[in-house]
Design brief:
The complex is a heterodimer of chains A (253) and B (162). Chain A is mainly α and 253 residues long. Chain A has a domain of 177 residues. In chain A, the strands form three sheets. In chain A, strands 1-2 form a two-stranded antiparallel ribbon. Chain A has a two-stranded antiparallel sheet with strand order 3-6. In chain A, helix 1 crosses helix 2 and helix 5 runs parallel beside helix 8. In chain B, 91% of the residues lie in helices and 0% in strands. Chain B is rod-shaped and about 190 Å long. In chain B, helix 1 packs across helix 2. The model of chain B has no long low-confidence stretch (mean pLDDT 87). Chain B has 162 residues and is mainly alpha-helical. Chain B has one domain. Classes of the chains: A mainly alpha (253), B mainly alpha (162).
Chain lengths: 253, 162
């Protein structure tokens, strides 16, 4: 098992790998989108603009499948950010990973990496630097928490009466069940994304161990991982939209 | 697998920052452009529909005009045929009248000529018969007026008989 490069900043345990990978993901997404919206044109869009518009229309379709597009217009940006961020994050760990063997008491920015504390001389800590940020359950939990807070906040703000009422439906005794259901949503989101991507990277590591025989498997699995990355990003986005629509929109009876 | 709450916080912050950066610098523009494109397409489609309508109206108009022109042409031909028929009849009528007139003129001329000839012949015949008679009865019949009148009267009676 690989360790994370964590340094302790006065009680705040900073995971350098997560920070770096989130930063890389964010920069890639931002640069990609910025390049796409450079030289925007109504009549003669560039290829990248066309691609971006296709993504926007795809997300519009996702939102429209969950709720009325008129109400869902505000969530298109959210869905776009989610799908691009998660997709890029899922793909980052595919081409390579960076693992360093660090000796005892290795220091970064003047702080000791925790995994290397107290190592005997001659032993090394395998520290994983470059990976998919979504292969870390803390990161997917963070994303799921954003969705969880957002959906409950929107439910309370836009649809308070029905939102609160749904906790005691069909009978008040269902209250604990409904609370569990609500809590299960972000947990399921986080674990689904994490497990898919983490398992993909584990399998890549395993295939690498088989040497030359693994090449065809590797090719197949890399392709499949791209598919999984896109699929998980799509699932995360559409579930977000479905949850938001569940809490904010009440069916007219 | 251990959950680091610090990572959760970092993820939330980075995601929110990314969301607002994208919203501010990219998505609003992109949505604006897409909206503009939608409007452009809509207006073009409206325009096309209008143009098609106009074209249809124009074709209808042209059809009507063509029909009108055909009708006019038909009328003109019909009218000219009638006029020509009438004219032909008129000409025929005129020709007939002319012929009748010419014929009657000719008949009158012939009559006149005949009368003149008869008149001449009669006077010729009178004088010749007087000459013959005077030659035959040179002595008895005197060449005077009374006798010539008598012969004339007689000849008139003869010539008057059919």
């Amino acid at each position: 098992m690989h360790e994370s490069p964590i340094i302790d900043l006065g009680g705040f345990r900073l995971d350098l790998s997560a920070v770096m990978m989130l930063l890389v993901t964010g920069i890639i997404v931002f640069v990609l989108v910025r390049l796409a919206v450079r030289n925007l044109s109504v009549e003669n869009p560039s290829k990248l603009q066309n691609f971006m518009e296709w993504v926007v229309e795809f997300v519009q379709g996702v939102v429209a499948s969950a709720m009325d597009l008129k109400k869902g217009k505000a969530y298109i940006s959210l869905g776009l950010t989610l799908i691009l961020f998660i997709f890029v994050a899922n793909l980052l760990g595919l081409p390579f990973s960076v693992i360093t063997d660090l000796p005892a008491d290795f220091k970064v920015f003047g702080k000791t990496i925790e995994a290397t504390v107290g190592l005997e001389p001659g032993h090394y800590a395998h520290v994983l630097w470059w990976k998919s940020p979504t292969a870390d359950i803390s990161v997917t939990a963070g994303l799921a928490l954003v969705v969880f807070v957002l959906m409950n906040y929107l439910g309370l703000k836009l649809n308070r009466k029905h939102y609160l009422k749904h906790y005691i439906e069909p009978f008040p005794i269902f209250l604990p069940l409904n609370i569990i259901e609500n809590l299960a949503k972000p947990i399921a989101l986080a674990i689904r994304l994490y497990a898919n991507i983490f398992a993909g990277e584990v399998l890549i590591t395993v295939i690498l161990k088989t040497g030359f025989f693994g090449i065809p498997f590797m090719a197949a699995w890399q392709g499949f991982s791209i598919f999984i990355g896109a699929l998980q990003a799509f699932i995360f986005t559409i579930l977000t939209m479905v949850y938001i629509s569940q809490t904010t929109i009440h069916e007219e009876h | 697998m251990n959950i680091l709450w610090e990572n959760i916080v970092i993820t939330i912050i980075s995601f929110i920052v990314l969301y607002f950066l994208l919203q501010k610098f990219a998505f609003s523009k992109l949505f604006g452009i897409m909206e503009q494109r939608r409007e452009l397409v809509m207006s073009q489609m409206n325009e096309a529909a209008q143009t098609r309508q106009q074209a249809a109206a124009y074709v209808e108009e042209q059809k009507k005009a063509l029909e009108q022109a055909r009708q006019d042409a038909h009328d003109i031909i019909e009218r000219s045929r009638q006029t020509s028929n009438k004219q032909a009849e008129q000409i025929l009528e005129q020709a007939k009248e002319e012929a009748v007139r010419l014929k009657s003129e000719a008949v009158r001329d012939i009559e006149n000529e005949k009368k003149k000839a008869v008149e001449e012949l009669r006077s010729e015949l009178g004088s010749v018969s007087v000459k013959i008679a005077s030659k035959l009865i040179e002595r008895e019949v005197k060449n005077d007026k009374a006798q010539e009148e008598l012969v004339d009267q007689y000849l008139k009676e003869v010539g008057g008989r059919p």
